[in-house]
Specification:
two-stranded antiparallel ribbon, alpha/beta, 42% helix
């Protein structure tokens, strides 16, 4: 498995398996399949309500806990120092582990400063091996990263060939922060799986559109966490280490960038912010 070194020296697999929208009842089976086909990084979140399934699959897999890189996220309703601190312990219990490899703040709204402080303390206590953020656009990211001693190891953002986050990547570099792509398959938007450019490039290497697009992100040093409930697709999404896109291929795929969210909407859109404010209330 290809690994990258985070800004605190911790090693992290560059390809992982995400479990958003995987029903709690199905999650254990999916994670067990993902581990079987070779994934060693799992991305979950408090808000996915499936941390228990992830924990059970890891426990039953027989794989040494140290060989698995576990990512979770603190939800906005658990922000503020005290609630975030308690929620980290709750995640540890649900995941049946005594440490999480990477904990993220899921969204940039509410008392995320208090929550980040709680993550820093849990990091110092050894409960978290690294900390980071998710959905922090450059403005909030620079603000937060500038004000904490422990810099975010990653910023997990909607990132795929149609929303490449090239601009944000420049600012992340200032803090040694990796871009981690959620929705790396664009959740199938824009006819992703049959897209003519991706299919055409993939043909040269006997790879699918999905594999071509994931390989593009990998070559840009992005961490990826494709999700599938099907074992053969999990396998396909992992099988991207035996070919290399040329500079010309990379340029063609770069042209697909629409430079905006296709899935969730911008976290800088006032209507999106209002939705979160109502949620927090
Ligand atoms: N931080 C955040 O706010 C945030 C938000 C969203 C997601 N995430 C994380 O990112 C992970 C991935 O993102 P995502 O789940 O939103 O979307 P995604 O990985 O871009 O796409 C998943 C979709 O693609 C299908 N698929 C997967 N591999 C395929 C293949 N090789 N060929 C054809 N179809 C394929 C899946 O269907 P099947 O399952 O039916 O195979 C599913 O419908 C999540 O699971 C989660 O861990 C984080």
């Amino acid at each position: 498995m290809k690994e990258i070194k985070l800004n605190n020296g911790v090693m992290m697999p560059q390809i992982g398996y995400g479990v958003f929208q995987v029903e709690p009842a199905e999650c254990e089976r999916c994670v067990a399949d993902a581990l079987k086909v070779g994934y060693r990084m799992i991305d979950t979140a408090q808000a996915y309500f499936n941390e228990e399934g992830v924990g059970a699959a890891i426990r039953k897999s027989g794989i040494n806990r140290k060989e698995i890189f576990l990512v979770s996220k603190i939800w906005v309703s658990n922000y503020g120092y005290d609630k975030a601190k308690a929620s980290i312990d709750e995640s540890l219990r649900k995941l049946s582990t005594d440490y999480i490899d990477l904990m993220l703040l899921h969204q940039p709204f509410g008392d995320y400063y208090g929550a980040y402080r709680a993550m820093e303390d849990a990091y110092k206590e050894g409960k978290l091996r690294s900390v980071g953020v998710s959905n922090f656009y450059a403005d909030r990211f620079i603000d937060l990263a500038s004000n904490f001693e422990i810099k975010p190891a990653v910023n997990q953002m909607e990132t795929h060939v149609f929303c490449q986050q090239q601009e944000l990547s420049k600012y992340l570099k200032d803090f040694g922060t990796y871009l981690m792509a959620w929705g790396p398959l664009a959740e199938g938007r824009n006819n992703f799986f049959t897209h003519p450019v991706l299919t055409d490039i993939g043909k040269k290497y006997n790879k699918s559109a999905a594999q071509t697009a994931l390989r593009y992100l990998l070559q840009r040093d992005v961490i990826i966490i494709p999700k599938s409930t099907h074992a053969e697709r999990m396998q396909q999404n992992l099988d991207i280490l035996d070919f290399e896109l040329t500079g010309e291929d990379m340029d063609r795929i770069q042209q697909l960038d629409e430079k905006h969210s296709l899935i969730m909407g911008s976290h800088q859109d006032p209507e999106v912010v209002k939705w979160f404010m109502d949620f927090i209330k």
